[in-house]
């Protein structure tokens, strides 16, 4: 039993989102009729189609099979060469399996999306938006960031100002907006601005936002103070101009009549001494012993008895406090003050909050199909935790979710809530989480609906990846369980 095979061409190139076909020629060099089954193997197998799946050849005859490769235009189709193979299994002699090999090169493409979270910020002295830059291409992206506005009304502090983003990953850039002039009185003013993602040889990507600068004092208060001061000054001037003269007419009349003509004051008669009671008048009765002790005491005694009886019938049951992630991490920190810990729990649809777990344990129910709505996280030994959700977007046109809520921060030992527990809250596709730069590293894995546990991923402090994304960005999926460590 023998078989001759040839791949034409042995090496080829394909663009993501396109397709290419490789022809496999084979000849039955044996002396019996044989049927061959074909199967693509290797990392490109999910994107390969073999047609036909089986072929029957007589001795000395030749046949052809087409292999069509169609990698998707996503970050999963990594740029570069990819080896592949075709397993050929004879039906009559399965032990004589043949595996011809070839090479397929996927061309690189870049696709960058940027989003401001939130698009509108408010403040008196500064604003703190965050710019999320997603690399949807299949090759690493290097970009610089800058800010601008009409009239140079704002200054920009962007950190980091340069990012390197691997395929399928996102970088989150913190931006501080500072107005160059302070509004002391008056209504808020809207100041549009633009953050630019600049890549070499590519048209810059502009993301527009609005900074609403508020005044320190409202306009009506300035008008009120001005009117009040004007009235006060007018009153003082009128008082000084028309100050009334006050004179005593009685004193003037007395001086005219002369003090010596006044008669001396009459002496008042001495008061009479009280008369002693006569013998025929009875004295008032002496107070009884009960009255001397105080009638109010009897009333108080009756009141105490009533209070004691009522207290026995209105005993209230004490309810244990809810064990949040902060309570769980505080207990761990008390046992291990010098270590780093992270505790967390999830809010499942129709079930409410789960029990808090810590340091790599599973929160949620993997495989039950129950979507998560919110996550409660607390840390110790990492200074702070920060995060933002990504949820289902019913208006999505690109199959991706969106980030509707701003970032939330919490110090060590304090609860940080990401997402919403409202009844109509959207399902959570994933969330971004980080700790203080230089104080620790967050590692995570999530169970995605109709999929499996994702590979363990960690952030990379000091390289622009100070954040890690838990879950997926697919608008038709959601996460059911998570594991976190620091």
Automatic annotation (TrEMBL):
Transmembrane segments annotated in the record for this chain: 220-242
List the residue ranges of the region (Disordered): 259-320, 386-408
Per the record, where are the segments of Pro residues compositional bias?
Answer: 262-274
Task: Report if keyword Cell inner membrane is assigned.
Answer: no
Q: Polar residues compositional bias: what residue ranges?
A: 386-396
Q: Where is the composition biased (Low complexity)?
A: 275-293
Q: Which domain of life is it from?
A: Bacteria
Keywords for this entry? Hydrolase, Membrane, Transmembrane, Transmembrane helix
User: Which residue ranges have biased composition labelled Gly residues?
Assistant: 294-311
One Pfam family here: ChW
Q: Name one GO molecular function term.
A: hydrolase activity
Please give the InterPro entries that the UniProt record associates with this protein: ChW (IPR006637)
Protein known as: Hydrolase
* Species this chain originates from: Streptomyces pratens
């Amino acid at each position: 039993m023998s078989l001759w095979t040839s791949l034409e061409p042995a090496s080829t190139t394909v663009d993501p989102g396109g397709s290419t076909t490789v022809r496999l020629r084979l000849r039955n060099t044996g002396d019996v009729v044989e049927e061959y089954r074909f199967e693509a193997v290797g990392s490109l197998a999910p994107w390969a189609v073999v047609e036909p799946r089986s072929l029957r050849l007589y001795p000395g005859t030749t046949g052809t099979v087409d292999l069509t490769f169609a990698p998707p235009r996503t970050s999963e189709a990594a740029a570069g060469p990819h080896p592949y193979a075709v397993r050929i299994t004879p039906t009559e002699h399965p032990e004589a399996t043949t595996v011809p090999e070839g090479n397929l090169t996927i061309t690189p493409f870049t696709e960058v999306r940027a989003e401001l979270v939130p698009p509108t910020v408010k403040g008196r002295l500064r604003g703190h938006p965050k710019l999320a830059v997603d690399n949807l291409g299949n090759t690493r992206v290097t970009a610089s960031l800058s800010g601008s506005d009409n009239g140079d009304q704002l200054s920009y502090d962007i950190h980091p100002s340069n990012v390197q983003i691997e395929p399928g990953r996102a970088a989150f850039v913190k931006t501080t907006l500072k107005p160059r002039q302070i509004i002391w009185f008056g209504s808020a003013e809207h100041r549009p601005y633009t953050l630019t993602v600049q890549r070499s040889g590519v048209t810059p990507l502009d993301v527009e936002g609005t900074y609403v600068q508020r005044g320190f004092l409202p306009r009506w208060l300035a008008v009120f103070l001005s009117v009040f001061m004007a009235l006060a000054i007018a009153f003082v001037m009128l008082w000084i101009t028309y100050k009334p003269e006050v004179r005593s007419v009685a004193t003037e009349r007395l001086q005219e009549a002369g003090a010596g003509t006044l008669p001396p004051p009459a002496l008042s008669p001495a008061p009479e001494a009280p008369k002693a009671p006569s013998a025929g008048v009875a004295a008032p009765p002496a107070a009884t012993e009960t009255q001397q002790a105080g009638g109010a005491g009897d009333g108080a005694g009756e009141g105490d008895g009533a209070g004691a009886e009522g207290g026995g019938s209105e005993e209230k049951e004490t309810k244990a406090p809810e064990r949040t992630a902060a309570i769980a991490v505080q207990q761990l920190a008390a046992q291990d003050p010098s270590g780093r810990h992270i505790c967390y729990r999830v809010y499942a649809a129709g079930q409410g909050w789960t029990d808090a777990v810590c340091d790599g344990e599973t929160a949620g129910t993997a495989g039950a199909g129950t979507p998560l709505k919110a996550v409660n996280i607390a840390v110790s030994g990492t200074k702070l935790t920060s995060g933002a959700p990504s949820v289902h977007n019913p208006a999505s046109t690109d199959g991706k979710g969106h980030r509707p809520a701003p970032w939330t921060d919490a110090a060590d030992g304090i609860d940080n809530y990401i997402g919403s527990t409202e009844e109509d809250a959207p399902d959570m596709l994933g969330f971004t989480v980080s700790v203080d730069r230089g104080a620790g590293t967050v590692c995570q894995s999530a169970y995605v609906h109709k999929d499996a546990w994702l590979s363990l991923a960690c952030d990379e402090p000091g390289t622009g990846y100070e954040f890690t994304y838990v879950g997926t960005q697919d608008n038709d999926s959601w996460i059911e369980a998570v594991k976190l460590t620091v």
